[in-house]
Amino acid sequence: MENLEVTINLPCLKFNIPEDSINFHYLEGIIFDLTRKIGQELLEELLEIIDNKLKKERKRGELSNQGKRLRYMTTLLGDITFSKRLYQDRGRKYRYLLDENLSLEKNQWVSQSYQKIEGLLAFVSGSYRKAQGLIQEFYGDSPSFESVRGQVIRQGKKILKEEKEEIDKELIKALLREKEEELTQEADSGIIYLEVDGTNIHLQ
After folding, report:
1. In this predicted model, what pLDDT tens digit does every residue of 164-196 receive, in sequence order?
2. Cβ neighbours of residue 182 under 8 Å, at least 6 residues apart?
């Protein structure tokens, strides 16, 4: 995808603040909520712009547009809802160009940054319910503790899988090095070892 230049005009905001509620803590909370709400709308609009750009730039004849699909995701800015186009290639395989270009995993409903926060707070607090309470305190809203638990379990499985793959790679490297060293030693010694099973070999 080519460089993306986007201009987004922010809407005018107007709200009333009760006189008896005017204090710094109240104002800070209002601005924080408004900032997150604006961020949600900006992110949704930006995703739509990128999806439209990918539609125009795709190679004609290779991908068939199958229409839009609605997507829901929990992010640092809060919950967002956006549409993305589904394509079918010549091999009849379905693809989302938006997912591929933004490094989104299949059926990913929570952003990686938010996943990390859930996992970290669950680890620090020692329980999923306490993690839910901390998220509520920090952001003003929170998923259920069962949702936090599910995300942490998925993260744990992913980390274990990545660690296992890394260990397997290192093990294969070590075995190959050991095999190379054995072959080098055998070549240097001038002795050839021959394994024979059920075959008669004459010395002369």
Report:
1. 888 888 888 888 888 887 777 766 665 555 555
2. none
Beta strands in 111-162 (DSSP E): none
Tokens of 193: 């070892």
Q: Is 201 or 23 the better-scoring residue by pLDDT?
A: 23
pLDDT of 140 higher than 90: no
Q: What is the reported pLDDT for 80?
A: 94
Question: Sheet of 63-75: strands edge to edge?
Answer: 63-75, 78-89, 94-95
Domain ranges of the chain: 23-109, 111-168
| 178 class by beta-carbon count within 10 Å (0-12 exposed, 13-18 middle, 19+ buried) | exposed
Indicate the SS3 state at residue 94. strand
Burial of 54 (0-12, 13-18, 19+ CB in 10 A): buried
Decide: pTM greater than 0.90.
no
